[in-house]
Amino acid sequence: MNEATRELPAAPAAGAESPEAAAPAVVAVQAPWRRIAADFAESRLALVGLVLLIVIAVAAIAAPWISPQNPYDLAQLDVMASKLPPGQRSMTGAMHWLGTDDQGRDMLSAILYGLRISLGVGVSSVACALAIGLGLGLAAAYFGGWVDALVMRVVDLQLSFPSILIALILLAVLGQGVGKIIVALITVQWAYYARTVRSSALVERHKEYIEAAEVLALSRPRILLRHLLPNCLPPLIVVATVQVAHAIALEATLSFLGLGLPITEPSLGLLIANGFQYLLSGEYWISFYPGVALMLTIMAINLVADQLRDVLNPRLSR
Question: CA of 131: how far to CAs of 23, 104, 138, in Å?
């Protein structure tokens, strides 16, 4: 049989649909948070950092219930048990897994309470600074003109000075205390958020959806909060995560220098400072273990922030 007489397959009857046409087209739409979670989970190192950060946060929150001792209660401190090495029991039979400091304070309990203060100061200062910088940055990008010029000149002026210098001056004037150090950290941090959100908002400001919202005569607060703000959040999330680690490190530095928190509220930096004078005499654990806790906290936050930067940046091919 030649090519001209080869039998052709029968055409489907009229009205009948082929199996491919009959099958409905299913398009899987993945929620944004699921995509972000899946992309974040691709890095095992980031997952380790996230798990470590969760463990540290839970331990800090639950410090009053899981700590062997309340380091703020003077009635529980035993001067005779001062500077005990790790793993040694006191005369009362209490086990001190990380040793004690020069005041007889259990180091494990002091570290857990110190983490509670350091994380609280870092997160609260970042949240307040983010709100201030977000509002000023959005206003500068949307309104432009003298508003943009004024906000950006103040930002440039502040960022031209080292953060620790501004914080030292403020604490020298205000004094010690949790609220005062939070005010100092807010003052040195808000400019980072203002500059970041302004650069992102300037890109989004001239896009079609903003112009359409203005043509529809939507109110300015609605345009800013419902349309412009959500598209500026990804870089802000990354900056805020990094700045939490920066705030914790800066607070620890100020406390180490004696200008941060008072002795009655020891953060990790103050715990390191308390044991610094004993490093050369062999009592290393008084400064070493708080330093390890501070290092692990900052490292975990930075690992999470680094992966978030890659996940939330659409320009990076994954």
Answer: 50, 41, 11
Q: Is residue 195 part of a domain?
A: yes
The structure tokens listed for 10 are 């029968």
Does residue 26 belong to any structural domain of this protein?
no
Cα separation, 136 vs 132, whole angstroms: 6
CB 78 within 8 A of CB 101: no
User: Domain span at residue 164?
Assistant: 53-66+99-312
Domain tally, the chain: 1
Provide the residue type at 96 as one letter. H
Cβ contact 201:195 at 8 Å:
no
Tell me the two tokens of residue 198: 């302004």
| CA distances in angstroms from 116 to 9, 19, 62, 87, listed in the order given | 76, 62, 9, 23
Residue 93: inside a domain? no
CATH number at residue 277: 1.10.3720.10
pLDDT tens for the chain, 318 residues long, are 444 444 444 444 444 444 444 444 444 456 677 888 888 888 899 999 999 999 999 999 999 999 988 888 877 888 788 889 998 888 878 888 999 988 888 999 999 999 999 999 999 999 999 999 999 999 898 888 899 999 999 999 999 999 999 999 999 898 888 899 999 999 999 999 999 999 888 888 878 888 888 888 788 888 888 888 888 888 888 899 999 999 999 999 998 888 888 877 778 998 999 888 888 888 899 999 999 999 999 999 999 999 998 888 755 544
Q: Does the residue 94 lie in any domain? A: no
Contact indicator for 121, 182 with CB cutoff of 8 Å = yes
* Residue 11, number of CB atoms within 10 A of its CB: 7
Query: What pTM did the predictor assign?
Result: 0.84
